[in-house]
Amino acid sequence: MDTKSIVAAEMDELFMRTALKEARKAGKRGEVPVGAVIIDEQQNILAVGSNNSIGESDPAGHAEMVAMRTAGKNIGNYRLLNTTIYVTIEPCVMCAGAMIHARVGRLVYGAPDPKTGGVVSCYQVGGDGKLNHQLNIEGGVLAEECAELLTSFFRKKRVKL
């Protein structure tokens, strides 16, 4: 691996750790622990988000949607051109579709979602060549840590039931 690739991988891990912090915040609020971070080309953080569907009674309150709404407001544009979004789990179809409409350039996710994953696991939104915009998709960044956060959250919920 060349130096540029090593630096890029280190930056991906750094921003995924920020997304994990957001996910933990969601979990403490009783939300499914998913977090997201959006950066621009200069690697400035434009927005962070965590799941808030339960607290806000919002079916679209996914971490990615929260972060994209905030980023759009912060830059004054619904187009999130040349941005990268980091999310702790593979996005669902809704979130992947919103990324396409926002023209997000790159998606980096942690754990795959074999039940509802919208970009690799169940569907290939943004990567199958069928839409007018394609995402540069990379999965598996800190996948084990991201997956364990979700697994432990649901394990604790089942014990309480």
Poorly predicted runs: none
Mean pLDDT reading: 95
**Tally of separate helices:** 5
Q: What characteristic shape results from the CA principal axes? A: globular
* Cα gyration radius (Å): 15 Å
Derived structural class: alpha/beta
Order of helices and strands: HEEHHEHEEH
Spatially, the strands of the biggest sheet line up as 2-1-3-4-5
Separation of the first and last Cα atoms = 47 Å
Fraction of residues in helices? 40-55%
Please report the total strand number as a whole number: 5
Report on the biggest sheet.
Answer: 5 strands, mixed
Residue share in β-strands:
15-25%
Question: What can you see in these coordinates?
Answer:
The protein has helices at residues 3-28, 53-56, 63-75, 93-102, 143-160; strands at 35-39, 45-50, 84-89, 106-111, 136-138. The chain contains five helices and five strands, in the order αββααβαββα. The chain starts with a helix and ends with a helix. The mean pLDDT is 95.
Q: Which characteristics define this entry?
A:
161 residues; alpha/beta; 5 strands
Entry summary:
By secondary structure, the protein is of the alpha/beta class. It is 44% helix and 16% strand. The longest helix is centred in the N-terminal third of the chain and has 26 residues, at 3-28.
Q: How are the SSEs ordered, and which strands pair?
A:
Layout: H1 3-28, E1 35-39, E2 45-50, H2 53-56, H3 63-75, E3 84-89, H4 93-102, E4 106-111, E5 136-138, H5 143-160
Parallel strand pairs: 3-4, 4-5
Antiparallel strand pairs: 1-2, 1-3
Helix pairs in contact: 1-5
